[in-house]
Amino acid sequence: MADARGGRAHVTVVLGRELHGEVRLDVDAVVVGTGAGGAMALRELARAGLSVIALEEGGFHQPKDFNQREEQMLAMLFADRGGRVTEDLAIRVLQGRGVGGSTVHNTNLCKRAPSEVLDAWAERHGVEGVRPAELAASYEVVERDLRVSEIPASMVNANNDVLRRGAAALGWRHGPLKHNRVGCQGSGFCELGCVYDAKQNALKVLVPEALAAGGRVYADVEARAIRSAGGRVTGIDAIARDGEGRRIADVTVRARVVVLAASAVGSAALLARSGAPDPYAQVGRRLRMHPGAVVAGTFAGEVAAHLGVPQSWECTELLDFSPGAEQRTWIVPAFAHPIGTAATLPGFGAAHMTAMRGYRHLAVLTAMLHDETEGRVVTGAGGAPVLRYVMSEADRASLARGVVGCARLLFAAGAREVTIPAIPPVVLRDARALEGLDTSFVRPYSVPLSAVHPMGTLRMGRDPRVSVVSSTGEHHHVRGLFVADGSLFPTSLGGPPQLTIYALSHHLSRHYVAAARG
């Protein structure tokens, strides 16, 4: 058993390698996944006095394991060792894997869902009980427990200050962001796990609190199928693996309640391969991902964008939440460490070396799309998830406007050169070059695209013909089966989703508890 500390209690996590043969567990509830939604569900069920366990397909890693080496941390902390992509290979999809899920590697941004989005969920998608005022109490609990606060001016690094200066010069909407860090050392390695243990996330806060309340976590144990009978969930079939990924035990969990919190990708794939009732073929549909593209500016002075808090400022000038709006991009700073930067910067040989030698003078912004494309998660060989997502022309055009917006911001902040890493690269030396720029090159395969926020594959709503779960989070056709992750979102969120996932799971937890009590 591995140690974890929560408050004054000294508690443990069961590792897959400690299990052998056939393992049978009888509990009131089982949670699949330990990210924002799963850790919150685990804590609330345990605090209610119920016997509850969480199954996590990834490992259990702690701050002492985070060595800030890109090639090792990507493999340790990310799904598919950091190599997850859409089926057509057009978009890289970065998702967490391990106890704490994506809260271990994310940049700690904490922003409530826009009121326009929550109101649209109620008015257009039949979601009840999650308008801004109705979700406010759960947001407040999460913000208190995770110690969410505005990022102070002293922690706005040079890369973020570029965005601030550019937006101020253009008169665009902009402002500071909030985060859940305490004791941040400004190393800039947030996305590789915080060795300084400054993240107030699921791994540090919620999981230890859940374990201290009597919950249990099984790491390196992958849920393979949901069991049900007579329209009611009965448990989970899973497999335990050792540290090398070898299957060493079969695990059967019997439970009155199953809470899926394995992400919009993992939860949808698990439900699909379990053969649960899906009379209207809704499982896995309407995948949204916030795909984004980056733009780099070269400055005369040193930026050293790899140091400090990665994302502390935002620009919302080009973010309109109206359905079908032309402007739907959220702009924030983005930066990569040397390996990631080398993989993104265009060019070969001497040209690429020259670009990398300017590393400390680069500032990078990303345009993240509030997407309306409807992708899908299906299962492939061995039941593995497959992400089918082909960006619509309207989304492509909106993303292109965001890319141009990033370039304008960089020039307004004083960049002497702006590079859009396309094939071939687009290098601009004056903001006037943006006027009438043909942006048809901003498309998959021409510019590197990445996504870090899969959403929407098991969406909530009143009508089972167009949704998978009700507004309580419970499956329309299988009693006792709940969802507690970004799968619930009927649409894209248009911003960082972690706070809303935490809050939704807390908001819905009374329903998990009531069902588990029978």
Tags for this entry?
five-stranded antiparallel β-sheet, globular, FAD/NAD(P)-binding domain, Cholesterol Oxidase, domain 2, seven-stranded mixed β-sheet, single chain, alpha/beta, 2 domains
Explain what you see.
With 518 residues, the chain is an alpha/beta fold. It folds into two domains: 2-80 and 96-145 and 191-286 and 454-517, 3-Layer(bba) Sandwich (FAD/NAD(P)-binding domain), CATH 3.50.50; 150-179 and 289-451, Cholesterol Oxidase, domain 2. It has eleven helices and 25 strands. The chain has a seven-stranded mixed sheet. Strands 18-19-16-22-23 form a five-stranded antiparallel sheet. Strand 1 and strand 2 form a beta hairpin. The longest helix is centred in the C-terminal third of the chain and has 20 residues, at 393-412. Residues 5-10 have low confidence and may be disordered.
CATH topology of the largest domain: FAD/NAD(P)-binding domain
Report the structural category: alpha/beta
Described by strand count, sense and barrel closure, the largest sheet is:
7 strands, mixed
Highest CATH level, the class of the largest domain:
Alpha Beta
Residues in β-strands, percent: 15-25%
Note the overall shape. globular
How would you sum up this structure in a few lines?
It contains 11 helices and 25 strands. With 518 residues, it is of the alpha/beta class.
How does the SSE layout of this entry go?
Elements: E1 2-6, E2 9-15, E3 21-26, E4 29-32, H1 36-47, E5 52-56, H2 70-77, E6 91-93, H3 115-125, H4 132-145, E7 149-150, H5 158-170, E8 174-176, E9 178-179, H6 202-212, E10 216-219, E11 221-229, E12 232-241, E13 247-254, E14 257-260, H7 263-273, E15 285-287, E16 292-298, E17 313-315, E18 329-333, H8 338-344, H9 349-357, E19 362-369, E20 375-379, E21 385-388, H10 393-412, E22 417-420, E23 426-428, E24 449-451, E25 481-483, H11 498-517
Helix pairs in contact: 1-6, 1-11, 4-11, 5-10
